């Protein structure tokens, strides 16, 4: 292969890899948090903005998942054992506190990297 062809091929490959890494960065990650024995497991999570968190009730009692974090309010209402909900963390909040309206000692702290 001629040197110029080699250079063009190399540049094309670099560009393709660059585009691939941009696409890979934009792809949201999915995390799963369970509720077990009246606790969120894990109770802390660090994610990137736009990532998805699935909250699943693995307990033998209902929970009521809510966030009173000012710019990221949500209320999943009563969540029965075995039920799960998906939350997309598209928020400018850097720390979201997820609690339970039934069991006020339950707390999940989600750090959202911007
Ligand atoms: Cu609860």
From TrEMBL:
Keyword set, alphabetical order: Signal
One Pfam family here: Cupredoxin_1
InterPro entries for this protein: Cupredoxin, EfeO_Cupredoxin, ET_Amicyanin
Annotated ranges, domain EfeO-type cupredoxin-like: 11-92
UniProt cross-references to SUPFAM superfamilies, sorted A to Z: Cupredoxins
Superkingdom to which the source organism belongs: Bacteria
Protein name, per record: Plastocyanin
Signal peptide: 1-26
